Amino acid sequence: MDFYYQSLVIYLIFFVVYVLIKWSYEDDITVLLNDPLFYILILFIAIFLIVVVINIIKSPMIILRDDRIVFKNRFGSREVMFSDIINVKIGRRRNKGEEITYRIIKLKLKHRRKPLKIRANEFERGNELIKEFLKIKGSVN
After folding, report:
1. Count of structural domains within the chain
2. Do 33 and 65 fall into the same domain?
3. Which side of the chain, N or C, has fewer Cβ within a 10 Å radius?
4. Tens-digit pLDDT profile for residues 50-90
5. Is 48 in the same domain as 102?
6. In what order do the strands lie in the sheet with 116-119?
7. Which of 29, 58, 87 is the endpoint of a domain?
């Protein structure tokens, strides 16, 4: 998520600087409207703005308490007690088309057949999340 915010800010700053420089040389706005770089910058800004808005709308959260984990999103929340956790597995998964390795946390629960999967990269501080689940894994086993 930080990447999208930073990219959006960089593109906005570059866009403003570009428009100011272009406008200082030419007082006519039609020169700016005929420039293809102007439209490419607007396209990039629109794409990153849409991605940031979608991430804000989804905004999943994991809240770690002393005795439970709270999974929260805009639709509601779900609590998992540490006593309900049988096993915690932290693995890696590589998408075939991408170079990035995704960290997946699997929680095996007492009252659930399939493990609960958490993709650490979907959260803002994924590395800290993995460290916290490693602590939980040590206390459960």
Report:
1. 2
2. no
3. C
4. 988 887 887 788 888 888 999 988 888 899 998 899 988 88
5. no
6. 85-94, 101-109, 116-119
7. 58
Classify each residue of 56-93 as buried b or exposed e, where b means 16 or more C-beta atoms within 10 Å of its C-beta: eeeeeebeeeeeebeeeeeeeeeebeeebbeebeeeee
Site of tokens 């086993």: 141
Is 79:68 a contact under the CB 8 Å cutoff? yes
Distance between CA atoms of 53 and 76, rounded to whole angstroms?
A: 19
Domain hosting 87: range is 61-140
Q: Give strand ranges (E) for 1-141.
A: 61-64, 68-73, 76-81, 85-94, 101-109, 116-119
Up-side HSE of residue 7: CA atoms within 13 Å toward CB? Answer: 15
| 92 in Cβ contact with 102 (< 8 Å) | yes
Q: Give the SS3 label for residue 67.
A: coil
pTM of the model: 0.59
Please state the length of the chain: 141
Do residue 126 and residue 110 come from a single domain?
yes
Q: Mark whether 70 and 120 lie in a shared domain.
A: yes
Asked if residue 79 and residue 53 are part of one domain, the reply reads no
Residues 37 and 72 in one domain: no
